[in-house]
Amino acid sequence: MALHLREDARDSSSVPGLSNDIARCIAEHGRELPTPFYLYSQRLLAEAIASYRELFPAQARLFYSLKANPQAALVQEFFRLGVGAEIASEGEWQACLAAGVSPPHIVAGGVSKSTEFLSSVCRSKPAAIVLDSVIEWRRFQKVLSVGRSAPVL
Fold it and tell me: How buried is residue 92: exposed, middle or buried, by Cβ count under 10 Å (0-12/13-18/19+)?
């Protein structure tokens, strides 16, 4: 897939958060960049998070869903900005831990949580576990019977 940069994007003034150096680099090397190619602005990300925070009570916690994009650098930046992670699989749980997100800042969801994974997550003391079915509730009850607990949504 070829990268098509709008003609006016070569001048960063038309693209919020894009410096002239980055715009020039993309214009010059766009065909060499992998696709899909994602470019994030730390400043715009921080501004967006601040704007979301204004919508909720001060005690509300924000969580970023790794389903959207599990890139470690992005997950780390969200965490640095005070946003936890919402995961839907064991792989995403591991990605969070590898990115430095501690379990109390992770909400574990997803429909395929095994008893072993639920037990492991409970031992880690996550922000919460989302139970999506009666079957998961039964698995969770087995985990509770061995003295583990976690907040449930």
Answer: buried
Distance CA 150, CA 109 (A): 13
**Residue 75 CB coordination number (10 Å):** 23
pTM of this prediction? 0.80
Contacts of 84 (CB under 8 A, 6+ apart): 61, 62, 63, 64, 101, 105, 106, 107, 127
CB 139 within 8 A of CB 115: yes
- The C-alpha angle 111, 71, 117, rounded to 5 degrees, equals 30
Q: Is the separation of the CB atoms in 15 and 9 below 8 Å?
A: yes
Per residue of the chain (153 residues), what is the pLDDT tens digit?
344 444 544 455 556 666 777 778 788 888 888 888 788 888 889 999 999 999 999 999 999 999 999 999 999 999 999 999 999 999 999 999 999 999 999 999 988 888 899 889 998 999 999 998 998 998 888 888 777 778 898
